[in-house]
Amino acid sequence: MMSLYSRFSPLTLRLVFGILFLIHGVSKFNQMTVTEQFFTKIGLPAGVVPFVALIEIIGGISLLIGYGSRIFAFILAIDMLVAIFVAKLSMGFVGGYEFELSLIAGLVSIVLSGPGAFSLKSASSSRKVSGVTAK
């Protein structure tokens, strides 16, 4: 019985994390100047802001739809590792890097388990018949 429901577990993570990363990526674009100033202040070049924002937007969408979610979960986990080591580590755990570490844990779970139920990946996999994809 548990295995019946276990395929729904990644769905919860995908939807919540997809929304979080999509909103944060869009926010970086909408507040480009402020974000560039912050990145410069913590020692990162301002020119990486559009790249990080785009990764978070595309990664968020990928998680929401469940296609390419393993690779984007991995990329977003690296994004959060960089955030921890560059901006949050000196702040300590509580009030510092606890949120990013929680995101990493969930993202690694998606990398290991795959997108789960209600994903484009599972929809495309279910259309395969005898090793041939139906068109």
Automatic annotation (TrEMBL):
InterPro entries found in the cross-reference section: DoxX, DoxX-like_oxidoreductase
Keyword Flavoprotein: no
Compartments where found: Cell membrane
Predominant location category: membrane
Membrane topology, record value: Multi-pass membrane protein
Annotated transmembrane regions: 44-65, 72-95, 101-120
Any matching Pfam family: DoxX
Keywords: Cell membrane, Membrane, Transmembrane, Transmembrane helix
Keyword Transmembrane annotated: yes
Family membership: Belongs to the DoxX family.
Protein name, UniProt field: DoxX family protein
Taxonomic lineage from the root: Bacteria, Bacillati, Bacillota, Bacilli, Bacillales
